[in-house]
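step: validate -> pass
step: tokenize input -> pass
step: predict -> running
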Amino acid sequence: MAYLPSLSPGLSYQVVLPRGIVYVNQYTGEVLGLRERGQTFLGYVRALHVRLAFGSVGKNIVRWSGAAMVFSLVSGLYLWWPVKQVRIRGDCRSRRFLFDLHNSVGIFSFLVLTLLAATGTVIGFEDQLAPLIYKLTSSAQLQTTYAAIPEPTPGALPITPDQAVTIARTRIPGAVPYRVQMPKYGSLYQVALQSPNDGIGSGRNVVALDPFGNLVSLTRSGDLSTGERVLGINQALHTGVILGTPGRVAVALASAMVAPQVFSGLLLWRRRTQDPLPAGRSTKEQSAS
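step: predict -> pass
step: emit ->
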């Protein structure tokens, strides 16, 4: 069981229960709704993106597809370079139109798509690449040390969730709590806080307290190692969150360009022996197709 305080005045609190998530008005305590536990549409989309909603087999397909996409983009740039075509000409049913569309869309989305494919490949192979990154940065993964939980004094009363949040905020001043894990699972309060001044990894602040308010462990995002920050930056680049809303928009637009690239590429391949480009096409264009 956990509850998620609102990070915005206009958003409700969320209480995570075995049955689902309850949305609560943070000012009146009114229950606004219940989302039954189960796969949501966005959850399914994420599972599709990460592993094709097909377990470990799908995950392997996705990560190797990312590596193949990096190769395809780099080889596409090599083929485009002699042509340097950025205009779309011809009738929409002609092969020249498809050729120009493929070249133009590809070059305008090249940088962002290459960044997405490369960072996605790192995420897919993170278990294998993380040790190398830690070695190159002469760092290691931050280890959380837990103190022994003391025996409660006679007559001591357990703290409330609000008191746990108050204690956690005194440990990490200026941070904003966004998740409170209740002691029913793990016998500890786990208060996660977001510190705006910490940049990448700002949500990695965690204060663990026993049910009576004694500090058991403290993890600060400012203590993250160089290797962990590199991995965090890689993920932030892949999702676009590193630049906020403009970054997300750029990632979304570049991702949308994949569809016309795949469609035009398939049609060009299918019609490779048909509908030749008009006379006067340069030898460089011939080699690029």
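step: describe -> The longest helix spans residues 55-80.
step: cleanup -> pass
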